[in-house]
Write a structure and sequence with these properties.
With 109 residues, this protein is mainly alpha-helical.
């Protein structure tokens, strides 16, 4: 919607929301799977267990945001914003993928 309406402020908010999700959901354990995002945080229905599907959805959602930013017109996604957002979103996605793969291999072995 942000790109469709050429709303740079709204697009920035989308990226900020991804960062906030990461801040809240990133597992803070000292276990080897620290860094994978927890399933649900909050006072109702909290589930801090690891759930690979939710990490997959989070990664895919951020990949869609990244694609929208990269394809957005300059008026909605100026180059300085585009570069910072791409760097941050890519690192969040990579962080989840790396931890998920490590956790899956560890559990298999």
């Amino acid at each position: 919607y942000a790109v469709y309406t050429d709303n740079a402020t709204l697009l920035q908010e989308v990226v900020d929301q991804c960062a906030k999700y990461r801040q809240v959901l990133k597992s803070n354990t000292t276990e080897s799977y620290a860094g994978v995002w927890d399933h649900i945080i909050g006072p109702q229905s909290q589930d801090v267990g690891l759930w690979s599907t939710s990490n997959g959805w989070a990664s895919m959602g951020m990949a869609r945001v990244l694609a929208a930013i990269l394809k957005a017109p300059e008026s909605c996604s100026p180059s300085h914003f585009r570069e910072d957002a791409a760097k941050n979103l890519t690192s969040y996605i990579q962080e989840i993928i790396d931890k998920e793969i490590f956790t899956l291999i560890k559990n298999i072995l």
